[in-house]
Every structure is written in structure tokens, then in C-alpha cells.
Specification:
Elements lengths: L1 E7 L4 E6 L2 H9 L13 E4 L28 H19 L1 E4 L2 H9 L8 E3 L3 H9 L17
Parallel strand pairs: 4-5
Antiparallel strand pairs: 1-2, 1-3
Bound molecules: zinc ion.
Zinc ion (ZN) binds next to loops.
């Protein structure tokens, strides 16, 4: 996309947005570009300082700024919602092995049990041992789906 600064023979200036230089040329030749102020078809390009996608020096600051739409999200509420969502996914996709967690995690790690995501409870010692053995465990506060609402 390229922006050309245009003007009619009465020096009414306006902008035109085009796919390319060729697009501009063909629209101009077809009389598709008219002055929004007086309707004149006698349009010419005037020197333009800003093109979209332009790279290079910062010597002349951009005259236009692209609108940036940032969804309004309450940071804290948004983070809490994301955490809930993640936890619910975790709970839904993991097999609950309860107090056998450490043993089952070890069996999975040593390929004695089918590989899958599990959850359960482990003591602090068990947790430390699992980490020592290089078993990936992820400790979360103990939650039930009902706790999140
Ligand atoms: Zn005009």
C-alpha cells in the first residue's frame, strides 16, 4: 500500500491510497481519481514525504500515525482470567493420580508407564527428588475447578 499526496488544478490537496505506482497510474488514466473538493479529474501528484512501509532515516518525523487499536483490558483481571483458563486446561487434560503422583511421574519418566500428563499431590521431598532426577514437574497451588469461580 502506498499513499500519494495529490492535488487538482485548483491546488486542492488530498491523499490517495493505492496498491502500487502502477495502480495509481491506471486509475489516473481511467479518470477514477477525482478531487474530493471540486470533483476535478485534473489530478497530479505532489511531492510526498511519507509512504507506508518506508524505512530509512528518522530525519523527518512521520506526519501521520497509523491507528493502533489496543483492546482495553484490565491488566489484573485479564491476568487472573488467563490463569484460570490455563489451570482449567491443565485440570482437564491431566490424569489425576492423586497421592501416587511422584511414583507415577517416575514410571512415566523411565518409560514404565504410558507417557501422558498427570497431576496429583507430592510432598516437598518428593518434589525435590523428582527435580533431582531430571523429571519435569510443575508445581502449582492445589486447586479444584470450583475454587476458581
Ligand atoms: Zn479540486
Amino acid at each position: 500500500m502506498i499513499i500519494f499526496d495529490l492535488a487538482c488544478q485548483h491546488d486542492h490537496q488530498f491523499e490517495g491510497w493505492f496498491q502500487s505506482r502502477e495502480d495509481f497510474d491506471s486509475q489516473l488514466a481511467s479518470g477514477l481519481i477525482s478531487c474530493p473538493h471540486c470533483g476535478s479529474l485534473d489530478i497530479r501528484r505532489v511531492p510526498s514525504t511519507v509512504h507506508l512501509g518506508r524505512s530509512g532515516t528518522q530525519a523527518d518525523p512521520p506526519r501521520r500515525e497509523s491507528p493502533v487499536v489496543v483492546p482495553a483490558v484490565d491488566g489484573r483481571a485479564g491476568a487472573l482470567q488467563a490463569f484460570r483458563h490455563m489451570t482449567e486446561l491443565l485440570l482437564a487434560n491431566c490424569e489425576d493420580v492423586g497421592a501416587d503422583f511422584a511414583e507415577e511421574a517416575r514410571r512415566i519418566h523411565y518409560v514404565e508407564a504410558p507417557e501422558r500428563s498427570i497431576r496429583g499431590v507430592a510432598t516437598a521431598e518428593e518434589y525435590a527428588e523428582l527435580l533431582d532426577e531430571g523429571i519435569e514437574v510443575f508445581r502449582v497451588q492445589r486447586v479444584k475447578p470450583g475454587d476458581l469461580h
